[in-house]
Task: structure prediction
Amino acid sequence: MERARAERIAGVLKAIADPTRLQLLHLIQSAPDGEACVGDLTERLGLRQPTVSHHLKTMTAAGLLARERRGTWVWYSVDPDGMEAVREILRAPARTAS
Amino acid sequence: MERARAERIAGVLKAIADPTRLQLLHLIQSAPDGEACVGDLTERLGLRQPTVSHHLKTMTAAGLLARERRGTWVWYSVDPDGMEAVREILRAPARTAS
Result:
C-alpha cells in the first residue's frame, strides 16, 4: 500500500475512531429516513450544540456524512460511498501465495 | 449505541487509524501464508525494528493481529475475528422507520 493512500485512509479512520462520533453515526443511520438535524442529536446524547456541530463537521469533511440545508435546519445523513470506502479498506487483499 | 461499546470500538479503530499500521496490516495480509515476522516488515517499510515492534504490539493488544513464536522468530498474522468485528461495526444498523 502506497504511503499517500495509507495516509488518506488513516485520516478517514481517525474521523470515526472516537466514541461520540460513533454514537452520532449510529443515531443518524438508525433515524427515520436515515437523517437527523443537530437539535435531535444534541438532545439524544445530552451534549452541547457546538460539540455536536464540531463532530458532524469533521465527519462531513472526511466524506462520512452528507449535509443538506432545508429552510433553517441542516440535515445530516450517512454518505454511503464514504462508509463503503472504509469497509473496502478493511477487506483482506489477495495474497501473493497460498 | 451504548457509551461503553462505543469506547471499545473507538479503541480498535484508533489502533488502525495510522498510516504505518495500515501499511503493516496490508503487508501481513498479503504475505505468503498471510504471516510475517518483524524482520520482513522492517525491511519492506524501511523502519527501525523497535518502531515496527511497537506498532505490532498495539495492534495485537487491540485484537487485530495474532502472534505465534516459532523458535527464535515471532510470526504475525491478521486475526480474522478482530477484523470482522471492525467491519461489523461499520455496517449500517436497521432503521427504525423507512
In short: DSSP finds five helices and three strands in chain A. The longest strand of chain A covers residues 65-70. Residues 3-16 of chain A form the longest helix (14 residues). The beta strands of chain A are 35-37, 65-70, 73-78.
